[in-house]
Amino acid sequence: MNTGENHPLGDLPDPSAREKQRPTPQNQGQRPVEQAQVVQPSQVNEVTPPQAELASPQAAATVVPQNKQPQVKQHQGQETPTKRLFDRLTSEISKIFVGQDELVLGSLVALFSNGHILIESVPGLGKTLLVRTLGQLLGCDFGRIQFTADLMPSDITGAPIFNMKTQEFHFRPGPIFTQLLLADEINRAPAKTHAALLEIMQEYRVTVDGTSHELKRPFLVIATQNPVESEGTYNLPEAQLDRFMFKLIANYPSAQDEAKILHLHSLQHDLDDKLASLKQITTAEEVLKIIEGNNNIRIDKKLLLYINEIVRLTRRWPMFYMGASPRAGLGLMQAARTLAAFYGRDYAIPDDVIQVVLPALRHRVILTAEAEVEGQSVDEQLKALLRNVEVPRF
User: Fold this and answer.
1) Which of 71, 94, 287, 289 has the fewest C-beta atoms under 10 angstroms from its C-beta?
2) Under the phi-then-psi rule, with left for phi > 0, alpha for psi from -120 to 50, and beta for the rest, what region is 281?
3) What's the rounded Cα separation, in Å, for the pair 71 and 62?
4) CA separation (Å) from 74 to 13, 71, 234, 309, 343?
């Protein structure tokens, strides 16, 4: 079981713990200097301080306020078919893919929410292996595109090919016609190639020569970019960044996980044989039924107002030059529903929203020039923003 110490993205707070963390008259003036630099008291009033991002279900069961790590009860539901499927998926994936629980959870939430994810990480963390494992377990087709500076839109979508025998043009599908697509180093392709993905990610279809070609569902794009190398790269346009439900940050594995990776590779087992040994535990049709069923997860009106206030506050936050779009609120709502279904509940709670705020918003906001000069980070500003939004009580 991973704890928040090994987890790059933190833990899920418990609502009962928040009441204990409210500032009292004796300690209200003793806020950390870092928080005082973020927000002026005259601008917003500090309230309940939730601190969490997308984390594994195991890490979500603990809270880390300051120097203590008390165990709290997770808001678990009943043993529903969706929860059993989620538990089986995470269990089978862990047999091949070691660690990086936030990548696994983020990928599954996005897949069962009809979303896409952008992963920012250094090379060699097993992203291709994760997508191949998902394809094997879900019974879905897997595809991979290595983006380069000379990659053309037709190299992705496909193009009409002239048949000499029939004297006719026939459409030849490109590698985009798959179900689980790994777009490796997407920021190395030019803008016109990025534009080719816009319609595909939003509409799930490809239009060539005025003819639309539907993609098989479910369809998930897992795009990666290297934060270290910037030579020969092109920044993704804001319109395309907004198409991604999550932006996940993948760090190096822990010492224990990396030692386990070395041990598994020292056994000299063929990776293709290990992947083939995994049994398919569901089908694409079953995934689509679960996606449709997740729409029935109840969202209280107070929770909708909570999501709305978070998104709208990003647009007037003093450290943000640009705030999140309405699509961010839709992504938060759908991701909260999916998390609730994974935990066996038929209703979403504020903790579900808090758990996905950072991955859902970090790529949709832009820091001001002053904040960048001061060395502020988007994640820290989003955490400060969350502290100034009152969590609803049901």
Assistant:
1) 71
2) alpha
3) 5
4) 9, 9, 42, 25, 9
DSSP 309-330: HHHHHHHH-TTEEE---HHHHH
Interhelix angle for 284-294 vs 81-96, to 10°? 130
Residue keyed to tokens 């932006």: 247
Q: Which helix H or strand E contains 83, and what residues bound it?
A: helix 81-96
Angle between helices 326-342 and 101-111 (to 10 degrees): 110
Exposed / middle / buried, residue 335 (Cβ in 10 Å: 0-12, 13-18, 19+)? buried
Long-range CB contacts for residues 261-268, cutoff 8 Å, separation at least 24 = 261/98, 261/99, 264/98
Looking up tokens 């993205």, which residue turns up? Answer: 9
Same fold, 15-23+32-74+297-386 and 98-291: no
More confident residue, 219 or 191: 219
- Other C-beta atoms within 10 Å of 344: how many? 18
Mean pLDDT over the full length of the chain = 81
- The CATH-assigned architecture of domain 98-291 is 3-Layer(aba) Sandwich (3.40)
Domain limits of the chain?
A: 15-23+32-74+297-386, 98-291
Q: Are 112 and 289 in contact (CB under 8 A)?
A: no
β-pair partners for 142: 180
Average the pLDDT over each of 39-48, 152-161, 224-233 and give the range with the smallest value.
39-48
Residue with tokens 């204990």: 20
State the amino acid at position 219 in one-letter form.
Answer: F
Interatomic CA distance for residues 72 and 13, integer angstroms: 9
Q: Looking at the domain covering 15-23+32-74+297-386, what would its CATH class be?
A: mainly alpha
Separation of alpha carbons 372 and 361, rounded Å = 17
- What the block records as the tokens of 17 is 């713990």
pLDDT tens column, 322-369 = 999 999 999 999 999 999 999 999 999 999 999 999 999 999 999 999
Find where tokens 């998930």 sit: 220
